[in-house]
Design a protein that fits this description.
heterodimer, A: 114 residues, mainly beta, four-stranded antiparallel β-sheet, 12 strands, 0% helix, B: 117 residues, seven-stranded mixed β-sheet, 11 strands, globular
């Protein structure tokens, strides 16, 4: 089974500062990779996805993520944090060979300080 | 509007009283799944279904049942709920195909918060 590791369950950044949320996966076969965001009292929404095309993926709200096979990583970044970015972020993996299951990380709660 | 609808959104029940959380999607998705979200544990998959009458266990299936008699519906059944099933539950769906712009993307419901006393 896959495992997804998100380093840092809580991250705080100042408004306007760089956002970096880390995600590492365990698969030896490059899977499909996703970042989802969960705003308070809501379901999860897709931020961006990697499906073996370009390694740098751009998503909504200015977020992007880079797939690095050698590091088995898919870190999420945003150059300048906005107050509205405060939310819970989940990294997820779907196996490319079977595609039957999604595996989620434990989530990172992002706080943006004014 | 394309969506996944879960009901109820909030439920407080007692140990042993059977309950069903319904999930319906209007996107003609083949794949549907249930997750529970607990603090510090992220989302864990309970059951998933690749199509009508095809279901399989996820990582935490104990104490839960599912059925997929119609493509649009995927109810989660707790035959005898226990306090350790107190959690936030999400239903999600996607197309089964693994390529193309809409492939692999899960659409989530708004969640069902269940408390078992």
């Amino acid at each position: 089974a896959q495992s997804v590791t998100q380093l840092g369950s809580h991250v705080s950044v100042s408004e306007g500062a760089l956002v970096l949320l880390r995600c590492n996966y365990s698969s030896s076969v490059p899977p499909y990779l996703f970042w989802y965001v969960q705003y308070p009292n809501q379901g999860l929404q897709l931020l961006l996805k990697y499906t073996s095309a370009a390694t740098l993926v751009k998503g909504i709200n200015g977020f992007e993520a880079e797939f690095k096979k050698s590091e088995t990583s898919f870190h999420l970044t945003k150059p300048s944090a906005h107050m509205s970015d405060a939310a819970e972020y989940f990294c997820a993996v779907r196996e490319s060979n079977t595609g039957n299951q999604f595996y989620f990380g434990t989530g990172t709660s992002l706080t943006v300080i004014p | 509007e394309a969506q996944v609808t879960q009901n109820p959104r909030y439920l407080i029940t007692v140990t042993g009283k059977k309950l069903t959380v319904t999930c319906s999607q209007n996107m003609n998705h083949e794949y549907m799944s249930w997750y529970r979200q607990d603090p510090g544990l992220g989302l864990r998959q309970i059951y998933y279904s690749m199509n009508v009458e095809v279901t399989d266990k996820g990582d935490v299936p104990e104490g839960y049942k599912v059925s997929r008699k119609e493509k649009r519906n995927f109810p989660l059944i707790l035959e005898s709920p226990s306090p350790n099933q107190t959690s936030l539950y999400f239903c999600a769906s996607s197309f089964r195909v693994v390529s193309g712009p809409g492939a692999n993307v899960l659409t989530f419901g708004a969640g069902s918060r269940l408390t078992v006393l």
